[in-house]
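seq as requested:
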Amino acid sequence: MTVKSKLIIGTRSSKLALWQANHIKEQLQKLFCDLEITLKEIKTKGDRMLGISLSKIEGKGFFTKEIEDALLNSEIDLAVHSLKDLPTKLPDGLKIGAVLKKEKPHDILISKNKIKFKDLSENSKIGTSSLRRTAQLKAVRNDLEYLDLRGNLDTRIRKLEEGQYDAIVLAYAGVKRLGFEDKITEHFNPEDILPAVGQGALAVEVRDDNNEIEKIISGLNHNETFLASVTERTFLEILQGGCQVPIGAYSEIKENQITLYGMIASLDGKKIVKNKNTGKLKISECKLIGENLAKTLLQIGGKEILKEINVNKAFLHMIM
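C-alpha cells:
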C-alpha cells in the first residue's frame, strides 16, 4: 500500500477539468480508502486569455504550465490534464505517470434544429476552437463560415443557443462527461475528421523523482491507452505540432496490433495529406510507428504544408 496519508491534485477550474480531477480522485480512493485527497484549482494562461484564439497564443502548454510549475514546486502531488493539452516535451523533472482508459476520441456536431453537417445552409456559422477541425471541415464544405469559439463547454453551448453560431464542433469526450449527449446532432468518423493527438484520454503528471506517488497512481494506468498515447505523441513530436498547426491522429487497436492514422492539413483545407501505419502493440514499436508515419506524411507533401504555415505565421507576427 502506501505510507502517504494526504494527496493534493492540481487541476484547472473549469467544470470539465474538475470533473476529470474528481474522477481521478474517486478512482484513487477506491484503491486507497484511507487516503485524504484534496483538489487545488489553478488558473492557466489559456484560462486567462479566453478572448484570444488558441492559434494566436505564442508558445505551448497554454493549459498546463502553471499547473506544472506548482507540481515542480511541490505545491501539489500530481496534476490531472486532458492528454491532448500536454505538450510532447514536458519540463525537466516531470513525466506522465498514468494514462487512463480513454473515451471515444472523435469530434461531434451540435447544431440548431439537429441539422446535419452536409445539410447546413450555405454560409452557416460554424464555431470551433481548433485549426485542425476547421481545415478538415473546410475540405468537405468550404461554403460555410468558420468562426473562433472559446470558453468552457457550457459557455460554448450557450453561445450556440443564443444564435451566435448555427453549429459548433466539439470533442465527444467532454460532451459525454458533462452530460450533454442529448444535444449531439452528429458523430464524425475519426478516420474522416481525425481528432487531436490524445483526445479523449486523461493523463496524470507527476515528478519523476517521486516514486511513492508513482506507485499510488500506477493502478490507474490503462496499458492500451498508454501505448496509443506513446504512438500518437511520438508522431506529433516529430512534426513539432501544436494548436497553431492542423495535425490530427487516431489510433485503433485490434488483436495486439495498433494502427495509427495521421493527417497534416493546410490552414484553408485545400491541401491534406493522410496515411496510416500498423505494427505490434509494444512500446518500442509504438514509437517507431509514430515516427515512421510522421516521416511518411512529410515526404508526401506534409513538409511543404508545414513550411507554408510557418511562413504565414512568421509574416503575421511581423505585421502585428
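The first strand starts at residue 6 and ends at 11.
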